UniProtKB/TrEMBL annotation:
It is a multi-pass membrane protein. It holds the Pfam family ABC-3. It comes from the Bacteria. Keywords: Cell membrane, Membrane, Transmembrane, Transmembrane helix, Transport. Belongs to the ABC-3 integral membrane protein family. It comes from Conexibacter stalactiti. The chain crosses the membrane at residues 15-37, 42-62, 68-86, 98-119, 145-163, 175-200, 206-224, 231-254, 260-282. This is Iron chelate uptake ABC transporter family permease subunit. It is found in: Cell membrane.
Length: 414
């Protein structure tokens, strides 16, 4: 990774931390998708906590604080924890959430006990083991980046190769079993991918915060994408952006890297929830307000057309009385219609312009067509089970089916 470090306009330490955070974001973002969509988000948390006793046991067994050995111990402990969770869920009456809680609490407690024991031995080599608990991105070296990159590439390549089988098992395990896929084996494989992500992230964010890196990118990406083939790369991209941004902010502010990365991820989730096109809270609120305005204007427009046909053009007070709305509401709708050029005023009385009359007739036609759909829609031989749009039924169904509905309505009226 030396060539990439040289390309970045950063100091060596900042470049190493930024690249490590990017690798973690890519791997955890893509692999965490399977945990979130399986509704097993806390599996990653349990596996991250289960890795801690593995680090301690590897240190006690070897007596050396070698990063490769300690991470191998973390991986083994994570695999044991994963198999234990699956075994408890499959072979007992305990539900998945309870199995996750049992493994998380017991393994993490064992890790804390072992850390305390190691600290009491006064072994000088034990200093720094707690970085696997809280993370210490500043301690990353170039060889750590190489190992992280290899693990990330292998895991992502495995996902790409087994994508169709993983997708089928993820969304429809019953069908996957019916077509001969090893459902249980694929579920264990998805859990093992989370172990790989945990091993990649232990040095950067630690066991406690690792779950955030598995969940946050997927939650943000889920607001923006609806297909798994789009969600995976988007979650990886968001994870990389969150990791790099958090690492650079932490470096400039001289604060711990892991918590800042998680806070940046939380900010990304909040922005996605608020601003995502089609799904964001603000987008939906704006659409709801726009729909309400359109409904109000259309209702007042139809009421005005009906009142004009029944007698002389009404004043605002007369229109409010005829429509059953308040004068303030009618006045707001009339101002919007006037702004759009649909009204002609004659003193206090209100007429429809040519455009206004055309819009009123179109609104009446849409209402009549919707009433016909409610009464005769079952008679249409539609090619699919579509859900028509009440505001524009003709566009939803097509001209042929809309004309057929109008014929049924005309026959019923005779």
């Amino acid at each position: 990774m030396g060539w990439l470090i040289d390309l970045l306009p950063l100091s060596y330490s900042d470049a190493v931390v930024a690249i490590g955070a990017a690798l973690l974001g890519i791997a955890a973002g893509a692999l965490g998708v399977f945990a979130v969509l399986r509704q097993r988000s806390l599996v990653g948390d349990a596996l991250a906590h289960a890795a801690l006793p593995g680090v301690c046991i590897a240190f006690l067994a070897t007596g050396a604080k070698d990063d490769a050995t300690l991470l191998a111990g973390a991986a083994c402990a994570g695999l044991v924890g994963a198999l234990l969770m699956v075994g408890i869920e499959r072979t007992s009456r305990i539900r998945a959430d309870a199995a996750i809680g049992v493994v998380l609490s017991s393994f993490f407690s064992l890790g804390i006990v072992l850390l305390t024991y190691i600290a009491s031995t006064n072994d000088s080599d034990q200093a720094g083991l707690d970085k696997y608990l809280f993370g210490q991105a500043a301690g990353l070296l170039e060889r750590d980046l190489n190992a992280m990159a290899v693990l990330a590439v292998v895991a992502l390549a495995a996902v790409a190769i087994a994508f169709r089988a993983l997708k089928t098992t993820l969304f429809d395990p019953a069908f996957a079993g019916a077509v001969g896929l090893p459902v249980r084996g694929l579920e264990i494989f998805m859990t093992m991918l989370l172990v790989v992500a945990v091993v990649i992230g232990l040095r950067t964010v630690g066991a406690i915060l690792m779950v955030a890196m598995l969940v946050v990118p997927t939650v943000a990406a889920r607001q923006l994408a609806g297909r798994l083939s789009h969600l995976l790369p988007l979650a990886a991209l968001i994870g990389a952006a969150v990791g790099v941004t958090g690492a650079l902010l932490a470096s400039s502010a001289q604060v711990p890297t892991g918590p800042v990365i998680v806070l940046v991820g939380f900010g990304a989730v909040v922005l996605a929830i608020l601003l995502a096109p089609g799904r964001g809270v603000l987008w939906r609120a704006r659409k709801l307000a726009r729909d309400r305005r359109r409904t109000l204007v259309e209702g007042v427009l139809v009421d005005l057309e009906t009142t004009i046909h029944a007698g002389p053009p009404p004043t605002r007070s007369e229109l409010a009385l005829a429509s059953g709305r308040s004068q303030r509401t009618v006045g707001r709708a009339l101002r919007m219609l006037d702004r759009d050029g649909m009204l002609v005023r004659d003193g206090d009385r209100v007429h429809l312009s040519q455009d206004g009359a055309a819009a009123a007739h179109a609104a009446l036609e849409r209402r009549d067509l919707w009433s016909a759909w409610l009464e005769h829609g079952w008679r249409l031989q539609l090619p699919d089970a579509r859900e028509p749009d009440p505001s524009d039924l003709r566009r939803s169904l097509g001209d042929a089916y809309a004309d057929e509905l109008q014929r049924y309505a005309a026959e019923g009226a005779r």
